[in-house]
Amino acid sequence: MNKLWAGRTEAETAKLADEFNSSIAFDSRMAKQDITGSMAHAAMLGAKGIITAQEAEVLIDGLQTILDDLKTGALQIDPAAEDIHMFVEQVLTDRIGNVGKKLHTARSRNDQVALDLRLYLRGEIDEISALTAQLASVICDKAEEYGDAIMPGYTHLQRAQPISFGHQLMAYAMMLLRDLDRLKDCRRRMNVSPIGCCALAGTTYDTDREMEAEALGFDGICLNSVDGVSDRDFAAELCAVLAIEMMHLSRLAEELILWSSWEFQFIELPDAYTTGSSIMPQKKNPDMAELVRGKTGRVYGDLMGILTVLKGLPLAYNKDMQEDKEGVFDACDTAKMCLAVMAGMLPGMKARRDRMRRAASEGFINATDLADYLVMKGLPFRSAYKISGALVGKCIREGKTLETLSLAEYREASPLIGDDVYTHIDLGVCVQKRTSAGGTSVQSVEQQIRAVRSRLEQDDGKDD
Q1: Which of 49, 131, 162, 176 has its CA 20 to 30 A from that of 383?
Q2: How far, in Å, CA of 112 to CA of 216, rounded?
Q3: Catalytic amino acids?
Q4: Residue whose C-alpha is closest to residue 110's, from 41, 30, 202, 199
Q5: Could you give the angle at which helices 31-47 and 53-72 cross, rounded to 10 degrees?
Q6: Model confidence over 387-435: pLDDT tens digits?
Q7: CB-based burial of residue 442 (10 Å sphere; 0-12 exposed, 13-18 middle, 19+ buried)?
C-alpha cells in the first residue's frame, strides 16, 4: 500500500522499520470509529464550503460502502497498511478517485487518532458499565437469597462478629456502585472532541468544530489544540478506573476461593465455572476465580504502562503515543471478560448455611454482644469489655463456648448477669439487633438491596 505521507523523503523505509512503525494490528479495531469520524468531517467540510456539497456526499457514500463491506467481510483490512487511518483513506481514494484525497483537508492524523480513540473508549465504557450493573444485580439476588444466613464476619482474617452472608455480599455491590460512578466521571471527561486541532496548531480553514463534535455525540470540544492532540489523560484515567474495579473483583474472587476451600466449606461454586485436577481426582479447583484474581495484575500493568509512556513526553504529539492503545484495549477486554465470568458464576453459587453457622458459633464472635449486655446492665464499656474477655479466656481453657457456660459461671464473673444473657448472645439475635443503617440485620440488608437496585434502575433509565 502506498504511503500517503510520502514526499519529504525519497528513500524507501526499511521493511523492518515499516513493521516496527505499523499499528494496524491493533488499531484496526477502531475502523468503525475512524469511518464514522471521517463521515462527520466530510459533512462539516461540505457545510462550510471547504469542499462542495457534492464532493462531501461522494465522500460520505464512499465511506459508508467501506464500512458496509468491512461488516459483511467483503473487504478485509490489509495487514500491510501502516494504520487504520491510512487504510481507510487509501481504499476510499482507490474507489472514488481524487475526491478521496480531499477528505484529509483541515485535519491531521494527530487529531484523527485522538478522535478515534475517544469514540472507541466511550463505547467500551458503556459496555463495561452495563456489565458492572449486571454483576451488581446478580450480587443483590444472592444477597436476598442469603440475607438470613449467619456467618462469621472477619477482621485480620480472624472471626470478629456475626453477620449475614447477604450483608457480606452487599459490600461488593457497594464497591461496584462506586465503580459505576468512576466510569461515568471518566466518560464525561473523555467526551470532548479533538477533531480540528489538526497537527497541533489548528487550521487556517474556516471549520466548524462544534458541528463535528455535536454530530459525533460529544459534549464539547478540546479548547486548546496542543492539548487536544497530546492529551491521553482519558486513556490513563480509564485504566486507573478499571484497575480499581479489577481490585474489587479480585477481592471477591479471593473470598470465593477461600470460602470454597475444604477448610471453610462455606460455599460451593458451580461445576461450570470450576475445573478438576489432572492427577488428583478429588479436586474441584476455583480456576475462574483464580484467573480473575490473576488478571487484576495484568490490568495494573496496563495502567503503569501508559503512565510510564506519558510521563516524559514533551508537547505535542510524539510517536510514543502509539503505545497508548494496546494497554487500554487490553484493560477493557480483560475487565469485560472478568465481569462477565463473575456474573455467570455467582448465580450458581450455593452457600452452606450449616458450615457458616458452625464457624460462627465456634469463634466467640458474640463476645462484643456480651459486653454490650453488661453495659445495658449499667457497667462502663471498658469494665464490661474486660469481663467479657475474661469469660472468653475461661471458655478457651475449658473447651466451652459462651453459650454453654452455666448461669452460675456467668454470675461468678458479674452479679449483674441474669438468665436473659443467653437470649442476648444468641447469634441470630446478635445479627438481628444490628438494625443501624448499613448494619447486618435482615431489614438493613433488604434496605441496602433496594437502594442498589434503585440506583441501577435510575442509571439504566438515563440517556448518555
Answers
A1: 162
A2: 13
A3: 156, 277
A4: 199
A5: 170
A6: 999 999 999 999 999 999 999 999 999 999 999 999 999 999 999 989 9
A7: middle
Ramachandran class of 196: left when φ > 0, alpha when ψ lies in -120 to 50, beta otherwise: left
In three-state secondary structure terms, 285 is strand
Taken in order 121, 126, 127, 129, the sign of the CA dihedral is positive
Query: Which of 60, 65, 84 is CA-nearest to residue 75?
Result: 65
Positions of E strands within 279-335:
none
Residue type, 12: E
Residue 228 · residue 298 · CB < 8 Å: no
If we measure between CA atoms, which residue out of 435, 448, 453, 454 comes closest to residue 167?
448
Q: What pLDDT score was predicted for residue 5?
A: 46
The C-alpha cell of 156 is what? Answer: 485480620
Rounded to an integer, what distance in angstroms lies between the CA atom of residue 358 and that of residue 402?
Answer: 14
Degrees (nearest 5) of the Cα angle 4, 24, 15? 70
Contact 231, 321 (CB under 8 A): no
Residues 260-295 as b or e (16 or more Cβ within 10 Å = b):
beeebebbebeeebbeeeeeeeeeeebebbeebbeb
How far is it, in rounded angstroms, from Cα 64 to Cα 244? 39
Residue 1: which pLDDT band, with cuts at 50, 70 and 90?
low
**CA of 234: how far to CAs of 19, 115, 196, in Å?**
28, 12, 18
Distance CA 270, CA 141 (A): 16
DSSP 321: G
Would strands 192-193 and 220-221 be described as parallel, antiparallel, or unpaired? parallel
Helix axis angle, 165-190 relative to 109-145, nearest 10°? 160
Specify the amino acid at residue 420: D
Q: How far apart are CA 303 and CA 370, in angstroms?
A: 48
Residues in the chain: 464
Task: Round to the nearest angstrom and report the end-to-end CA distance of the chain.
Answer: 39
Task: State the Cα torsion 16-325-249-244 to the nearest 10°.
Answer: 120
Please say whether the beta carbons of 428 and 409 come within 8 A.
no
Per DSSP, the residues of 423-438 read HHT-HHHHHHH--STT
* C-alpha cell recorded at residue 252: 471477591
CB 270 within 8 A of CB 288: no
SS3 for 403?
A: coil
Q: Give the span between the Cα atoms of 402 and 422, in whole angstroms.
A: 9
The residue written with cell numbers 483541515 in the block is 106
- The predicted model scores a pTM of 0.92
